[in-house]
Amino acid sequence: MTDPPDPHPDVHPDVHPDVARLHAARPSRVADLVGTLADPAVLVLATTLVVALRSSGSVLAGLGWTLLDVSLCVGAPYGVLALLLRRGVVSDRQVVRRGERRVPLLAALGCVLVGLAVLTAAGAPRPVVALVVSMLGGLAVMTLVSHWYKASFHAGVAAGSGVVLVATLGAPASVPVAALVGLVGWARVRAGRHSPGHVAVGVVVGAVTGVLVFVPLTR
């Protein structure tokens, strides 16, 4: 009996498994679009904006805290990632290979720590500071988990942002939040970026961090 034909003959057996999964996935414009629109930077920006506007005395103040928060906690880490990408430390912007994630994660932790210090010293509203502490906790857990297992950042940020939005806007936000998390998880698997296990771990980390960190700090 002969072996069945390889459905993906272009994927070499020696290719990194994370890269092989990505190459083996069938193209999907919908999944790619969801991944782009639900990029962690976009979700953090949107969540920070909601939290800052709800906790500030004016729209202008809320926009100012959002700009400061996102610049330090999102812009700076992405800047470091761009530098690492240019130097060949990581292979792509989404860091497909798990083994390449340690350096950018540690850099992101450092940036968020600096952001937390600056925002606290500047007198940022308590919910904004709580959001940054929650981000810091999620990053720390992701860094630890990534030593052994690859978890989806898209799913983790979607779940963590979802908890923050429900805590800020109330129970009615839970339905669209759940739909968003499910859609992001599907898109990451469909695009070959992650396995279902990677998505599940990301969701657990993001949701648990939000519940255990953001919610208590804002009560």
The ordered H/E elements are HHHHHHHHH
Shape: globular
How many domains make up the 3D coordinates?
Answer: 1
Largest sheet: none
Keywords: Membrane, Transmembrane, Transmembrane helix
Protein name: PAP2 superfamily protein
Transmembrane segments: 59-85, 105-122, 128-149, 161-187, 199-217
3D architecture notes:
The chain has 219 residues and is mainly alpha-helical. It has one domain. Helix content is 72%, strand content 0%. It has nine helices and no strands. Helix 3 packs antiparallel against helix 6, helix 6 runs antiparallel to helix 9 and helix 7 packs antiparallel against helix 8. It is globular and about 55 Å long. The termini are far apart.
Key traits:
single chain, 219 residues, mainly alpha, 9 helices, globular, MFS_trans_sf, transmembrane helix, membrane
Blueprint (SSEs and pairs):
Layout: H1 17-24, H2 29-37, H3 40-55, H4 59-86, H5 102-121, H6 126-145, H7 153-169, H8 174-190, H9 196-217
Structure summarized in a few sentences:
It comes from Lapillicoccus jejuensis. The protein is mainly α and 219 residues long.
